[in-house]
Amino acid sequence: MKKITNFLMKRNGILSAVMVMGGIFSVLSKYGCCFYIYHQPHFPAALQDTDE
Amino acid sequence: MEQAVDKIMQRIDESYTLEESEKEVLRFGIQAAMELTLNLLVSIFILYKLHMIWEGLLFFGIFIPIRTLAGGYHSDTYLRCLLFSVLTLTGILIASNYIELSISLMLAAILFLEGAIAWIAPVVNADRPVSKREYRMFKRRLKIVLLADGIFSICLWRMQCGKAVNIIALSLMLILITLILGKIKYKSYQISV
Predict the structure, then answer these.
(1) Which helix (H) or strand (E) holds B55?
(2) CA distance B88 to chain A (A)
(3) What ipTM was predicted for this assembly?
(4) Measured between CA atoms, how close is B158 to chain A, in angstroms?
(5) Domain segments of chain B as ranges
(6) Cα–Cα distance, B122 to B164 (Å, whole number)
(7) Distance (Å, rounded) from C-alpha B160 to C-alpha A22?
(8) Which residues of B touch A46 (CB under 8 A)?
(9) Digits of tens for pLDDT over chain A (52 positions)?
(10) Which residues pair with A38 in a beta bridge?
(11) Given CB atoms, is B125 within the 8 Å cutoff of chain A?
């Protein structure tokens, strides 16, 4: 995993694609209670809904 | 997985100027994307090896929308999550071949399980705080998904597709078990509306 990550990170196009993908998944996370897999990364405070 | 995300974030930090909150959001999104992608690739590999592609797609078609809206149990590490995913996917697909109960009984089980899920869910977890407004929204959407699944199951029952009905019943059973486990694990995080 580390070797693959190092290899991919040397390419700027891939880095941009990873950033776009991260942004899309952050937005998608707002549409449900969790992701369907059995692990939930810590939800960022900036995305939390403050409306009671 | 976290080490790989750290490495990516380090590289992003060197190339772009981002605020702390932006980095936090991006880190979350990248970690989620990597975890989901790896789970999906492993699942596709299992489906291919078991020669059960359409059965697997049916399982995911039922499981993903409900699980996303209903929440439930989550493991503390990604490795345990991957292991749990692999075992449940394989178990459900294999078990669907051996269930020989009547298709009408399985339909009744589906309708009962849907009622139980609609009653218990959503189950909020510690890492995904949910406001009351979101809670109500998820519950409403979940009921729509369950209604659609119920109608779909009735159509399959009419067409006598026994194996498909078995897979739906087992998927709903898995969701209900994870909801109960989640309810116990995250007892103090639950919202009452």
Answers:
(1) helix B53-70
(2) 11
(3) 0.82
(4) 29
(5) 1-51, 53-189
(6) 26
(7) 43
(8) 21-22, 24-25
(9) 767 777 766 777 888 888 899 999 999 888 888 888 888 888 888 888 876 5
(10) none
(11) yes
Mutate to test the interface with B, among A30, A38, A48 (most CBs of B within 10 A): A38
Q: Residue B13: left if φ>0, alpha if ψ -120 to 50, beta else—which one?
A: alpha
A41: DSSP letter? P
User: Chain A interface, mutation test: which of B9, B11, B174, most A Cβ atoms within 10 Å?
Assistant: B11
User: Pick from B30, B84, B124: which is nearest to A22 by CB?
Assistant: B30
Which residue of B25, B32, B85 is in closest CB contact with A38?
B85
Contact between A44 and B37 (Cβ < 8 Å): no
Strand-pairing partners, residue B71, are: B123
Cβ distance B32 to A26 less than 8 Å, yes or no, reads: yes
**Residue B84 pLDDT greater than 90, yes or no:** yes
pTM above 0.80, yes or no: yes
The per-residue b/e assignment along B161-192, b for 16 or more CB within 10 angstroms, e otherwise, is: bbbbbbbbbbbbbbbbebbeebbebbeebeee
Contact A33/B at CB under 8 A: yes
> Residue B124 is which amino acid?
V
Q: Token match 């009622």: residue? A: B115
